[in-house]
Amino acid sequence: MFRLLSMLSTILAFLTLIILTAGQNCESPQFKVTTYSTQDARLTTESAAQLEFTVKCKNGKQPSNLYADINGQIIPCAQSVSSPGKYYISGSAATPKQLARGRISVKLYDDDSYSALRKARADDAVKAVKPFGEVELICSGASYGPWLPSEFFAVIVFGAIWWIAYRERSKILV
Amino acid sequence: MFSKTALILLAFISVAYSQTDDEESFLFVTKQTVNRFIVQGKELTIKYGLYNSGPTTVFNVNLNDVHSYPSKYYELLVGTLNPKWERINAGTNLTHVVVLKPKESGISNSSHAIVTYQKSEKNTEVQRTYSSEIGDVYIMTGREYDRRFSSHVIDWILFTAMASPCIVFPFFLWFNSKRKYELLASKDKTTKKAQ
């Protein structure tokens, strides 16, 4: 009788633990993302990019910590003090080629998946860890200014006018 | 020679002691701008780099730089001037990017950002450190920047408009006289042929 009771209590404790942890996790998160990347490459020496996103969970909970996988390195996401619920991922690239026009996919991990990732040693195990979510960084590409400067066109136009005039003049003066 | 060896020995001892003195980490924060020029009305990108030197994790990192960029003089476009991180592991290098837009031109000074963190999860004693500062910067007006870097298309159009009387007026004179003489020449030819 006593043994049955203790077994039941351990099972109950185990179940409550599962329920508690399940309740803390964020189920099927939805991300709302705004991205920014440097637009004027003549004004800056390095290109910078930033992802700002908010997470909406089905059960209304907010993940306490999020980590992002950038170029193989896992870094924690910054959170805003003044407006909670906003997460930021920033990075800068010395060469504009690394932030070329296109989309870069960034994997996100929360506390649980991050600890699973840290425990995984082999490459396969690392890939097998399911990320919390994935967001996309949309780079518009930095511009270096117009392809041909306006002076080029001015030279062409005025050069053509001069050439026509010279041709007619040499016809007369001959 | 004896003093030299003594000095070297002393240096070794001091280095060894300073390394094993505290097992705590220290957070280095750098603040720099990636802009070549700072222009009024154009984006100013500030990059904060946080580096956790040392063997342990730091917790509850809070960076506050709101006082350097009051909203009266700077408009915040991207990012936040007050980010926080729950934990930064040992040896990690973090960047945080903020994009501002200066509203006024002239010389402006931005001071250090204040960073507070806890060295351990249980010890709530807050360690405060300061970032590097950018110092005095010159914010040039939009017109100065445009003079050097804009595409000048409007300037060229205006120039063409102003130069066109000098070109079009003689062109018409020449064109009219050419047409008159060609007409005369063709009339002469037809009269000569007729003769």
UniProtKB/TrEMBL annotation, chain A:
Membrane topology, record value: Single-pass type I membrane protein
Signal sequence bounds: 1-23
UniProt-listed InterPro entries: TRAP-delta (IPR008855)
Record's GO cellular component terms: endoplasmic reticulum membrane
Main subcellular location of this protein, as a coarse class: endoplasmic reticulum
Record function comment: TRAP proteins are part of a complex whose function is to bind calcium to the ER membrane and thereby regulate the retention of ER resident proteins.
Stated name of the protein: Translocon-associated protein subunit delta
Organism name: Adineta ricciae (Rotifer)
From TrEMBL, chain B:
Keyword annotations of the record: Membrane, Signal, Transmembrane, Transmembrane helix
Pfam families given in the database record: TRAP_beta (PF05753)
Ranges annotated as spanning the membrane: 156-175
Signal peptide, first to last residue: 1-18
Coiled coil stretches, renumbered: none
GO cellular-component term (any): endoplasmic reticulum
Listed name of the protein: Translocon-associated protein subunit beta
Organism: Adineta ricciae (Rotifer)
